[in-house]
Write a structure and sequence with these properties.
The complex is a heterodimer of chains A (291) and B (315). By secondary structure, chain A is mainly alpha-helical. Chain A contains twelve helices and no strands. Chain A is elongated, with a radius of gyration of 22 Å. The chains are: A mainly alpha (291), B mainly alpha (315).
């Protein structure tokens, strides 16, 4: 009986969140823009052939301004900028999602342990956390990426390490607020095991803020990926990546500004749509703004 | 109020002492990261073609033949006496270079944070006072966009427009005031966006509090209510965000400096990371991290000082 009741209520909560999210025009705009990005990125292979348009160089058509054949123009090797952008989006979105997922998971486990058990473990975890957070995030990521060498895997590792402490801190403080509530007390009295209480009662109740944080982290990681690739750490040429496209195009931007305008716009719009969704989610989840 | 000064003194001392283990930890983290770097310093300094004997000898001199933990302890014990080693590249003490370049970075970061405060707080307040007005919607959307664009791209776009197309400002280098305009604005806009958004949301919350209603009821002027009663309370969380943003600025300066060719601590850090100049990298990151921690400490103290609720706890 209790199980069924809980299930019913939870479903209702997300329905309620969606109902309130729909009211925000900006959030809907964000969802629509995100949808377009995901569509272009998922079907990038069908829209533009990878070998022919993204990799193969053709100096006969280098640095051409935007036209019907090349919507965003061509770069210094005669490659189609639009094709490179939608294929490059794969890297940004993959790194953004992977980094966020892994760091939310790791941060979640570490934060949950710290917040639930308190005492000594909590102290040690949080002091180590403070140490990592003492280094400005982007600097930490740059140092790790440089030490590990280029490549998408190393990029994900570097960014993840810089993001875990933030998630640990948020999830720990969420747990500290949830744990005080009566239903956790009741579950303890009832004899539920610790992992069960954490997984069944605490995490679902802390989910809202975590989702908001995660959405914004994906946006920030897309920005960080571009920044690191711009510095030459991350994806290696000739594979397309938005930050790397900017750093290559910089030389030619005086007479061919479009090769730096469009990749940057792609980064900005993708990050913006994620932030709009995150912002809308935060308002929709805020119980004080109910009704 | 009597022993407030005493307690602050104790609090500050305690917090400064707490900085020591954190900075030791930061050193350890940076040291471990640099140890992941393939290759050894002897080869880096003498070059690929140097003979193996000379390389081995130099590695031994630098203590690089010892295990990681010993190297770390040696570093710490020498650092405690103020010796952070010499740069592999210039062979000069690492902090000479840092202190030489720091004023440039500081001017940039301080200018950017001040500009961000002057843009972010007033617009944030106006936005909240006129919630849902066209001005509020426009500034919210612009702020959202500013918080979402890659900072280095903003820098490139400004350079494209104001230096290459219009020719109003120099694109790179330092020297005159004109050189600082673009990098400072580039650094400050995303920060201003963060401050604006937070000021707006805390003001919205504050203006709905009972004491604001009381102030209105007793007939206080609307202008005084907003700018004195409400803003004073709404600013508390904003101060924390300003502190955090100042920290981001120091990190962000790394990229912006390299785009605008500014010889600050940021470019130094990037170059030494690239050249695998371990002593210089460790010292630069440690320096930026210490600065960040000190700023956060100052923020906490200011916070405690202006919030009577926290101040009361120390009496």
């Amino acid at each position: 009986m209790i199980e069924a009741g809980q299930h019913y209520k939870k479903k209702n909560m997300w329905k309620e969140v969606w109902r309130r999210l729909k009211k925000s025009k900006l959030a809907l705009l964000g969802i629509a823009a995100l949808g377009i990005f995901v569509f272009l990125i998922v079907f990038a292979d069908i829209i533009a052939d990878y070998d022919k348009m993204v990799i193969t160089q053709n100096t006969a058509i280098r640095l051409q301004p935007p036209s019907g054949a090349h919507w965003f123009g061509t770069d210094e090797y005669g490659r189609d900028v639009f094709a490179r952008i939608i294929h490059g989006g794969r890297v940004s979105l993959t790194v953004g999602l992977m980094t966020t997922l892994i760091s939310a998971l790791l941060g979640g486990i570490i934060g949950a342990v710290a917040g639930y058990y308190r005492g000594m473990i909590d102290n040690v975890i949080m002091r180590i956390n403070d140490m990592i957070m003492g280094i400005p995030g982007i600097l930490l990521a740059i140092a790790i990426a440089a030490a590990l060498g280029p490549g998408i895997r190393n990029l994900i590792i570097a960014l993840t390490i810089s993001q875990v402490p933030g998630f640990t801190r948020i999830i720990r403080s969420m747990i500290l607020t949830v744990i005080e509530q009566d239903f956790v007390e009741a579950a303890k009295a009832y004899g539920s095991s610790d992992p069960f209480i954490i997984g069944r009662h605490i995490i679902p109740n802390a989910m809202g803020p975590i989702i908001v944080q995660a959405t914004m982290t994906v946006a920030n990681m897309i920005l960080a990926t571009a920044a690191l690739s711009y510095l030459g750490m991350g994806v290696q040429p000739p594979a397309p990546e938005w930050g790397a496209m900017l750093s290559d195009g910089k030389e030619y931007m005086r007479y061919s500004p479009y090769i730096v305008v469009y990749p940057g716009l792609a980064i900005a719009l993708l990050a913006l749509s994620l932030n709009l969704v995150g912002d809308g989610m935060r308002d929709a989840l805020d119980p004080r703004l109910k009704n | 109020m009597g022993n407030w000064g005493d307690n602050v003194y104790k609090y500050v001392t305690k917090r400064i002492l707490l900085l020591i283990p954190i900075l030791l930890g930061v050193t350890f983290i940076v040291f471990s990261i640099m140890a992941l770097t393939p290759g050894d310093p002897g080869r880096l300094i003498l070059g690929e073609n140097a003979n193996q004997e000379a390389i081995d000898q130099l590695n031994q001199e630098l203590g690089f033949d010892k295990p990681f933990l010993i190297r770390y302890l040696n570093y710490i014990s020498r650092a405690a006496t103020g010796d952070f080693g010499n740069s592999y590249r210039s062979d000069r003490p690492v902090f000479d270079e840092i202190f030489y370049r720091f004023p440039t970075t500081f001017i940039l970061a301080a200018g950017a944070i001040l500009l961000a405060i002057f843009i972010g707080i007033p617009i944030g307040v106006l936005s909240a006072v006129k919630q849902y007005s066209p001005m509020d919607i426009v500034s919210t959307v612009i702020a959202m966009f500013m918080a979402s664009i890659p900072q280095f791209w903003l820098g490139l776009m400004m350079m494209l427009l104001f230096a290459l197309k219009l020719g109003w400002l120099p694109s790179t280098g330092i020297g005159e005031f004109r050189h600082y305009i673009m990098p400072t604005i580039t650094l400050s806009l995303p920060c201003a966006a963060n401050i604006l958004r937070l000021t707006r949301s805390t003001m919205l919350e504050t203006t709905r509090q009972d004491y604001i209603r009381t102030a209105r009821a007793k007939g206080a002027k609307e202008r005084a209510i907003i700018w004195k009663h409400a803003l004073k309370n709404a600013l508390l969380p904003v101060i924390t965000v300003i502190g955090i943003n100042f920290g981001y600025l120091l990190g962000g300066a790394v990229l912006i400096e390299s785009i605008f060719g500014i010889p600050g601590v940021g470019t130094l850090t990037i170059t030494s990371i690239r050249m695998k100049d371990i002593p210089q990298t460790t010292a630069s990151v440690l320096f930026l991290a210490s600065l960040y921690c000190v700023i956060m400490l100052v923020v906490d103290i200011v916070y405690a000082y202006i919030d009577p609720r926290i101040r009361a706890r120390y009496n």
